[in-house]
Design a protein that fits this description.
By secondary structure, the chain is of the alpha+beta class. The protein is built from four helices and four strands. Helices cover 33% and strands 20% of the residues. It is globular, with a radius of gyration of 16 Å. The relative contact order is 0.22.
């Protein structure tokens, strides 16, 4: 059973908070929450740090898996079940991460490191089969900066089949 707070569960259940899928997209989801880079913070050098890090990673992965399931079900509720609504395993996909942050992040290092758990959740939910470069999937990263304290924080994930 996913360990979500009531606020996270409420945010995930809000259908209008989820983005709408563009034509040709398999999945379009919004995961609310503050993004944290895995390059910063405790590195697991002590037992306490390792446990803290493992707990944070597991909670994030469960939150993303719940949002993916919610996003897939949203596509099924509104229309009839089609083959395009079901992720096709083994085909190369383009995964677009749009990060909503309060200040500018380094797109080369910090953003991919912070989204590693999100990629792992895509593997767990069988949206992608692997995140290695040899798997054929393309990952793109964008960021939207909103310096206001009340600004929107989180990650939007959009997945589509890559046509070569």
């Amino acid at each position: 059973m996913p360990s979500l707070t009531s606020a996270e569960l409420t945010a995930l259940r809000r259908r209008d908070a989820q983005p709408t899928r563009a034509p040709g997209e398999l999945l379009a989801i919004w995961i609310p929450g503050k993004l944290e880079s895995r390059l910063n913070g405790p590195q697991g050098r002590t037992l306490k740090g390792a446990r803290w890090r493992a707990t944070k990673i597991k909670a994030t992965r469960e939150r993303v898996c719940a949002a993916i399931l919610d996003g897939l079900m949203k596509g099924w509720y509104g229309s009839t079940l089609t083959a395009r609504a079901v992720p096709i395993q083994g085909t190369p996909k383009t995964v677009r991460f749009i990060v909503y942050v309060g200040h500018e992040w380094d797109l080369d290092e910090n953003v991919p490191a912070a989204l590693k758990t999100h990629k792992d959740a895509l593997k767990v939910m069988r949206i992608i089969d692997d995140d290695k470069p040899s798997s054929g999937h393309t990952f793109t990263y964008e960021q939207v900066i909103d310096p206001r304290r009340s600004g929107r924080r989180g990650v939007e994930i959009r997945v589509r089949i890559r046509h070569t």
